[in-house]
Amino acid sequence: MSLKEKLKGDVVVHMKDGNKVALTTVRNVLGEIETREKSGKAPIEAR
Questions:
Q1: Full-model pTM
Q2: Cα–Cα–Cα angle for 2, 12, 37, nearest 5°?
Q3: Number of H helices and number of E strands within the chain?
Q4: What is the spatial distance between Cα 3 and Cα 15, in angstroms, rounded to a whole number?
Q5: Which tens digits make up the pLDDT trace of 1-47?
Q6: How far apart are CA 31 and CA 18, in angstroms?
């Protein structure tokens, strides 16, 4: 499972839990990853 897939799963969990701070944080991280990928930089993968 890639980092991006894990974060997308976390979005669902935090939405169900109603944890707005964690949800916002995870969405911001996902947005930054997608922005970097679209700009042509190498995707960020967890090791």
A1: 0.77
A2: 40
A3: 2, 0
A4: 18
A5: 788 999 999 999 999 999 999 999 999 999 998 898 888 866 666 55
A6: 20
